């Protein structure tokens, strides 16, 4: 009976390891169920954070391009980029000092372009 329980537990663990292996390629697989679940959560969070950082960088680059070309919609793009930077800072993707520094530099470039 004890061996049957042990077999069921091992089968359960191997199942979760197999599911994990199919979903993500890693060098070492966790054995404990909570560690497997945490690793899956980390992968999802990494994808989400990367996407949000990418959208922030895209907004900033659009603003920089508009300022360089002296476009009329640079002020609107500044608002969008500033909002994206603030969102990234509030989610902890970038530090608040970096967010302030980036926004300050963008505001200075916008003021210089409008002058």
Automatic annotation (TrEMBL):
Keywords: Ribonucleoprotein, Ribosomal protein, RNA-binding, rRNA-binding. GO terms for biological process: translation. Gene3D superfamilies: Ribosomal protein S20. It holds the Pfam family Ribosomal_S20p. InterPro entries: Ribosomal_bS20, Ribosomal_bS20_sf. The keyword Ribosomal protein applies. It comes from the Bacteria. GO terms for cellular component: cytosol; small ribosomal subunit. GO terms for molecular function: small ribosomal subunit rRNA binding; structural constituent of ribosome. Binds directly to 16S ribosomal RNA. Belongs to the bacterial ribosomal protein bS20 family. PANTHER family: 30S RIBOSOMAL PROTEIN S20, SMALL RIBOSOMAL SUBUNIT PROTEIN BS20C. This is Small ribosomal subunit protein bS20. It comes from Secundilactobacillus mixtipabuli. The lineage of its organism: Bacteria, Bacillati, Bacillota, Bacilli, Lactobacillales.
């Amino acid at each position: 009976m004890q061996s049957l329980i042990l077999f069921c537990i091992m089968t359960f663990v191997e199942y979760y390891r197999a599911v994990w292996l199919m979903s993500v390629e890693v060098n070492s697989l966790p054995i404990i169920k909570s560690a497997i679940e945490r690793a899956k959560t980390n992968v999802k969070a990494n994808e989400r954070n990367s996407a949000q950082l990418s959208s922030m960088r895209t907004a900033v680059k659009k603003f920089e391009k508009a300022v360089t070309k002296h476009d009329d919609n640079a002020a609107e793009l500044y608002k969008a980029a500033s909002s994206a930077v603030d969102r990234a800072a509030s989610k902890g993707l970038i530090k608040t000092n970096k967010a302030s520094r980036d926004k300050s530099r963008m505001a200075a470039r916008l003021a210089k372009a409008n002058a």
